[in-house]
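Why does residue order matter? Because the sequence determines the fold. Keep that principle in mind as you read this record.
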Amino acid sequence: MNTPLQVGITGGIGSGKSLVSRIFHSLGAPVYDADSRAKKLMTTDGILVSQIKKEFGTLSYLPDGSLDRVYISKATFGHPDRLERLNQLVHPRVADDYSNWVASHRQSVYVLKEAALLYEAGSYKALDKVIVVTAPESIRLKRVLERDPQRKAEDVRDIMKRQWPEEEKAKRADFMIYNDDTQMVIPQVLDLHQRFISGS
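Structure:
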């Protein structure tokens, strides 16, 4: 049975990992967006929905069945243990969903799994290679504030603190893509694409 090369793609908030994923996707590479799939599973996966209701109460969901994000945010904000518990419920279901997704893309030479917390959640261990998209913190902060005007600088810095430092990710990376406005991103992606399809 064919198994595609499984490549993770991660980076701190504002690094541009989604941009890099879109370029790979335009080259024909299947991309699994773990963060958006997790949000979807929190309303469509019956097992996960019942686990969240049991742990955080039925008020976790609105009458239409959608997740009450405000309620969940309040329930977990400032409570690292509760946030960790939520992650413990979500991550195994995402892992199962990802495995099924990979099986459905057996004909591909390689697939990409994009996830903000690839290292933090430990899911990088199941992958063959990991790409880290990097940019200096000042650039990342500026990008996020321009992209998400509703966020405050301290909120973004708080998210950055919860993510692994760039140098820690870089140490474990198989490949780095520099999205720091000094190098063009597309040639870096093309180079990796060629490597993956040639098996080098």
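The mean pLDDT is 92.
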